[in-house]
Write a structure and sequence with these properties.
heterotrimer; A alpha+beta; B alpha/beta; C alpha+beta; B: alpha/beta; Rossmann fold; 5 strands; globular; disordered N terminus; C: alpha+beta; CBS-domain; eight-stranded mixed beta sheet; three-stranded antiparallel beta sheet; 20 helices; 20 strands
């Protein structure tokens, strides 16, 4: 009985579908998206690279000349790199559309502008 | 031919060019292609993952995201499917079964790697019982990273895959 | 001192700070270490595991140790926005006398009770959610350990005067990681304040939780083993017998059994920590608010406000009626005593550093900076001329001014030396703070400036380079130099103080205000 009432009620409501990709909704606050490095704050200690559970971060060089390579196809978006960084140089963005045709386009490189 | 360029180097399966797609300006070919674009049917297969990606893939079929708007149906048999959506890092035990399912699918077929494990193996990459990533076994068309990827991200991957299929058609048309 | 830095800071830290015995166990390195490799236990700093397992390069523990030369310029940036700067006081906005309105707090702290009242009010209003102070240990009341105060009543057990160093910087790290506090007030001695400021300058992520830094005035801390031995040998008492120590010209040691022992300063000075002997910071020049005793007043404290946030929280407490204030100009002898202590500490520090250098003994890198300049600083000074940086509107005094009036002028304007000029504006001599100190306080009302002023002057011409002037000042050990006209040596054109030069070295881009305050 109740289900018929529910069904009639919903007959006159607008559809609940979010028609992605024509309608997009912002992810909730605190969403763990792709990490980005602020190279001005990075000291090149290598903690993010060592702590990453899937080895998605590669640090080339050391100290202030360090460059960071981040492999999104291996990234778990767990946030361990951001947590370990002693200077909060890593922030997680809130994007999630990373689908791509090849794995090579999913590598991001960060280096300090001199 | 055209289809060969989408094959990554890891794959051990050679994609055979379908004899049907040689002539692009014949009416029946366009109709089939149009049907494939407007209504690709998916077969989902889990190769040893944690089920996170499976739940998100399933969530894409719920009324909130409703991927059936694109005409997508979830099929039970590889004989009926266009797209194989693979989740999980491929374990050694499931490897030959995966290949067998892929071989049972009729041409043209596409592979969608859903989740970071399917893309590259993620944290299980060097484990003793894991091959590490679907593209070591099958040729992958679209990678959707995430752990798990949001249903919107999966839909984004499907849209990119459909665009790729359309792109094939546009290329064929231009020839 | 050190040619190049090791990739792992701990190797440098051990070689330069820990092995020569310059560690005061503040614990900043323990809080800052991202892999928790350092721990303070049993009165020592322990290296619990090899940090190279996790990292191949890390500069942290060396950079933030208060006794190294790293980040010193950046830490000054926290207080250098203040409009005023004076000898031994540092950068400041206001100096005043204050006391807690509640008499119980004043009794507990044996002084003005300002820090306790300020922090209690701040916790009540929610400006901070916790404060890091120190408390006495039960069995040995003279020893202190850090205390994290979460409610206002916790602050009642916070200690008033401490003579041993407590690991408050370590407590700060624990408060952030284990207690999850996000608005912390930090109370510490000048070296501990410097450690916290270095952490802030390094932009370590635990510093997001720091709200305000309150510095105490400090002459030195004692070394526990040395003091224990001294007391046992000279007086036959154990450290655990002591109830409290008061500093009043001499060290008055009160024992638990009621007896009182007086120990003079020279006797006890050999038993301080070796880094304290080379420290020149008396008033915590990097804190937001500095608080010290206003000797000889018993109930009042001297408060130096340096930053905007210090001003904000202090004004709020005054408005709420927890603290009452008085102008420092009303008590010039209090100010004089305060400045004298600071200058004394600096004098002892320079003597000790020179003594150690002569004997080839190690000196902590932060203290070397007191004596030597970096090459780039030397080249900067050589390229500037005196006329570019001298103060043209010089404050002068007439020969008939009494020393008491002069002291009032010094207290109001905070300059330590004034040239003495006659009615035509010709220079007769110069009178400084030291000249006043030589005359006892009772006679300062009668003695005139012309009796104590120095007639032999050290002067320079407007076109001499600032490097020459700096060297002259170091050679004659004076704090200011008069710039005179080449043709008429008695005509005063301007004045340059050592603080102007040092200020310019540390902050060459900031145009400092030349109008007399």
């Amino acid at each position: 009985m109740a289900i018929i009432v529910e069904a009639i009620k919903h007959l006159f409501k607008r559809p609940a579908t979010l028609r992605y990709p024509f309608e997009k909704e912002a992810p909730p606050k605190g969403f763990r998206g792709r990490p980005i490095w602020d190279m001005h704050r990075c000291v090149g200690c290598g903690l993010c690279s060592r702590m990453c559970p899937s080895g998605a971060i590669e640090m080339i060089g050391r100290g202030h000349e360090a460059r960071i390579k981040h492999y999104v196809d291996r990234c778990l978006f767990c946030g361990q790199c951001s947590e370990s960084c002693p200077r909060n140089a890593i922030r997680l963005m809130n994007d999630f559309e990373h689908a791509s045709y090849s794995r090579d386009s999913m590598i991001y490189e960060y280096k300090r502008e001199s | 031919m055209r289809l060969e360029t989408f094959k990554p180097s890891h794959s051990s399966i050679k994609r055979e060019t379908s004899k049907f797609l040689v002539k692009a300006d014949e009416q029946p070919m366009n109709l089939l292609k149009w049907a494939r674009i407007k209504s690709p049917w998916i077969l989902h297969f889990n190769t040893g993952g944690c089920n996170g990606c499976d739940i998100e893939l399933l969530a894409a079929f719920t009324p909130r995201f409703d991927v059936e708007r694109f005409g997508i149906l979830l099929q039970g048999s590889p004989r009926h499917a266009d797209i194989l959506a693979v989740t999980g890092p491929v374990t050694l035990q499931v490897r030959e079964r995966l290949v067998r399912i892929y071989e049972q699918m009729p041409e043209p077929k596409y592979v969608l790697a859903v989740g970071s494990c399917a893309c590259s193996g993620a944290p299980f990459k060097d484990c003793y019982n894991v091959v590490g990533g679907v593209d070591k076994v099958l040729p992958v068309d679209v990678y959707v990273p995430g752990c798990p990827p949001k249903p919107e991200a999966i839909i984004d991957g499907i849209v990119k895959l459909i665009q790729k299929i359309e792109g094939e058609e546009a290329y064929e048309k231009g020839r | 001192m050190k040619a190049s830095r090791d990739l792992i800071a701990y190797n440098d830290l051990r070689r330069i700070i820990i092995d020569p015995g310059f560690c005061n166990l503040c614990g900043a390195c323990e809080s800052a270490c991202p892999v928790h490799a350092l721990k303070i236990e049993n009165g020592r700093l322990n290296y619990t595991h090899d940090c190279t397992d996790f990292m191949e390069f890390c500069p942290i523990c060396y950079d933030i140790c208060p006794f190294t030369e790293a980040l010193l310029l950046e830490t000054l940036g926290f207080v250098a926005n203040a409009p005023n700067r004076a000898e031994s006081i540092g950068y400041y906005r206001k100096i005043l006398l204050a006391q807690a309105v509640d008499e119980k707090l004043r009794d507990l702290s044996h002084s003005g009770g300002v820090v306790t009242a300020l922090l209690m009010h701040a916790i009540k209003t929610g400006f901070i959610d916790s404060a890091i102070t120190s408390e006495r240990e039960k069995e040995t009341p003279i020893m202190v350990r850090p205390l994290l105060s979460l409610v206002p009543d916790d602050l009642l057990s916070a200690v008033d005067c401490e003579y041993f160093s407590s690991s408050v910087a370590m407590a700060f790290g624990r408060a952030v990681h284990e207690y999850g506090k996000a608005k912390i007030a930090f109370v510490g001695t000048p070296c501990q304040v410097r450690a916290i400021r270095k952490l802030e300058a390094w932009e370590h992520k635990i510093m997001n939780s720091l709200r305000i830094v309150i510095g105490l005035t400090c002459l030195w801390s004692f070394s526990f083993p040395k003091l224990t031995q001294f007391l046992k040998e000279s007086y036959g008492i154990e450290v655990s017998d002591i109830l409290r120590i008061d500093m009043d010209g001499k060290y008055k040691v009160s024992l638990k059994n009621g007896k009182l022992i007086a120990v003079s300063i020279p006797e006890i000075r050999d038993h301080t920590l070796s880094v304290c002997r080379m420290c020149e910071d008396f008033t915590s020049e990097l804190a937001d608010i500095s608080v010290g005793g206003a000797h000889p007043l018993r109930d009042w404290s001297l408060v130096i406000i340096r930053t905007e946030i210090g001003e904000e929280i202090f004004e709020e407490a005054v408005k709420a009626g927890v603290i009452r204030t008085r102008k420092i100009e009303e008590k010039p002898n209090v100010y004089a005593h305060f400045v004298r202590m600071g200058l004394l500490k600096r004098k002892y520090a320079i003597e000790e550093i020179e003594r150690r250098k002569k004997r080839g003994e190690p000196v902590p890198p932060v203290s070397i900076r007191l004596l030597e300049l970096l090459p780039r600083e030397i080249s900067l000074l050589s390229s500037l001329k005196a006329e570019h940086i001298m103060t043209k509107n010089v404050m002068t005094v007439t020969p008939e001014t009494t020393l008491e009036e002069l002291l009032t002028i010094m207290t109001r304007h905070h300059h330590m030396g004034y040239p003495v000029v006659d009615d035509e504006g010709k220079i007769l001599g110069i009178v400084t703070f030291e000249d006043i100190s030589k005359v006892p306080a009772s006679r300062r009302g009668e003695v005139l400036v012309k009796e104590v002023a120095r007639k032999k002057l050290v002067t320079a011409y407007p076109d001499s380079s600032v490097m020459e002037i700096y060297e002259k000042m170091s050679q004659y050990k004076i704090g200011r130099i008069l710039i005179v006209d080449r043709k008429d040596h008695r005509k005063l054109l301007g004045i340059i103080t050592k603080t102007d030069i040092v200020h310019m070295l540390r902050w060459p881009m900031k145009k400092f205000d030349k109008t007399p305050t």
